[in-house]
Amino acid sequence: MRENLVPFTIGKETEISQALHKIDRNKQGFLIVVDEEEHVAGVLTDGDVRRALLAGHQLSDKVMNICTQNAKAVNVTDTFDIVSGLFKSQAIKFLPILGDDGKLENIITKAQFHTMLLQDIPADLCFDFLTLDTSIIDSEIFMRPWGFYKTTVLNKYYQSKVISVKPEEELSLQSHEHREEYWIVVHGRGRVQLEDDVREISCGSYIYIPKGAKHRLINTDENQSLIITEVQIGEYLGEDDIIRYEDKYGRI
Asked: What is the largest CA-CA distance in the chain?
């Protein structure tokens, strides 16, 4: 067995108390239950443990008594189409990957699968999925004086965001040295300033912001938020690639 899989596996004769400690350490909420020869005997989640204890099981009971013994798994030679089909089930958050002999060869989580695809990483089911940074698909919402934004995808090729501007608020007049931006209005109405051109926008409007161009987004509505989707393309996509020329919130 790969050394990096050890934190995610447990012997079927192990006590529930030990399983709880191991689940707490691996931070993934599950374990793969294996026998002495590393064949997969079942899967165990923190939810399985909680339900077992509520049903009267003791911490000294064996994990084999409470694990799911017929859990879905894939073979190391299967395609990602098969993996994708299984992950369409809301109940499946991870999949053991087995060799032809039924032994555990790898593990893939739904978050790792999505991360791999969105970063366009060439891989097969032997890939070390634990090396992937899954935070790129779980970005926080960042509040700003004018509203908020949330990154939906970030990789070395592009970044996409949802930007929401509060009623009668506006972004600074700004430009970017390293990226160009593509905006589509998906809700509300407002105004875009692009260099010396100013135009009204509403749901469905498309705006291209060239690299280096001064631009500003303004919500002119008194009641509704102005929401756009933004795609950034360039050699650098950091939040510090911004030059402000005017800002109503004093951030110059």
From this structure: 73
Domain CATH code at residue 206: 2.60.120.10
d(CA 188, CA 225): 6
Residue found by looking up tokens 């002119």 in the block: 220
pLDDT surpasses 80 at 1: no
Instruction: State how many domains the chain has.
Output: 2
pLDDT tens-digit readout, 109-151? 999 999 999 888 999 999 999 999 888 788 889 999 999 999 9
- Cβ 164 vs Cβ 225: under 8 Å: yes
Kindly write down the DSSP assignment for every residue of 124-135, as one continuous string: -TTS-GGGS-GG
Is 252 inside a domain boundary? Answer: no
Instruction: List pLDDT tens digits, range 140-194.
Output: 899 999 999 999 988 889 999 999 999 999 999 999 999 999 999 999 999 999 9
Residue 251 lies in a domain: no
pTM across the whole model: 0.81
Whole domain around residue 42: which residue ranges?
Answer: 3-136
